[in-house]
Fold this sequence. Notes:
Blueprint: E1 25-27, H1 29-34, E2 44-57, E3 63-73, E4 78-80, H2 82-90, H3 100-115, E5 120-124, E6 140-141, E7 168-180, E8 187-198, H4 203-211, H5 220-235, E9 239-246, E10 252-259
Parallel strand pairs: 6-7
Antiparallel strand pairs: 1-4, 2-3, 2-10, 3-5, 7-8, 8-9, 9-10
Amino acid sequence: MTPEQSPLGKSSTYTEQYDPTLLFPIARSHAREAIGISARLPFFGTDIWNAYELSWLNARGKPQIAVATFFVPADSPNIVESKSFKLYLGSFAQTAFESTESVRDTIKRDVSASCGATVSVHLSTPHEFGKLKMEEFDGLSLDRLELEANVYQPDASLLGAAHDEAPIEETLFSNLLKSNCPVTGQPDWGSVQIHYAGPQIDHAGLLRYIISYRNHTGFHEQCVERIFVDIMKMCKPLKLAVYARYTRRGGLDINPFRTNYNLPMPDNMRLARQ
């Protein structure tokens, strides 16, 4: 269950006949232990996956298409390695199903079993495509700041907050998040939104901290959890929510959301770069 054992970064045989064994789970615990997260999680949330390359055959052999959205709970034991997920979804291409509901139920069963928790699945069929809107993050853009940056590995010491002043509540975002796949080294481009209540976080330090992920290797979910943990440790907010939306690769985008207080789940509207 390690990334090195997955199909990521390796030559693969693509099959177009349904095959649930293609799904490759990776335990969340290893990466969490590395940043000091115990079995008792300091957050809750979800990973929102959107798949744009799903197709299958109906009972008469006519191709069908849909955009699939998955909500994977943050407390699931496993994530699914993204290339294996792409291979799995590709295996539907020449497989006949009686209905869209049958496809959805099949995917929900398989992905839930791989993640070790119930995964919600929604299929948007072509008549719903017009309802799939775009938006940009709300809040104050950190990217407005003119500053120097020369740290490109995560460094929590870049973070700071005004602990001796009155607490505030604000929403900040940046489009300058970049990390790299831990196996292939391919870049993962993203945007991150941070909402918090507590001592005011130093904006310049937070932007430098986000930029510091530029040469870091880690899966999307792991990066967001590290951001959450570091902000909690260094800035000590009373409330914190971290939400990242990454650009798609292989027809998939991954959007982790972590919070320590009751907050509506994100609406999953995609950003322009996605």
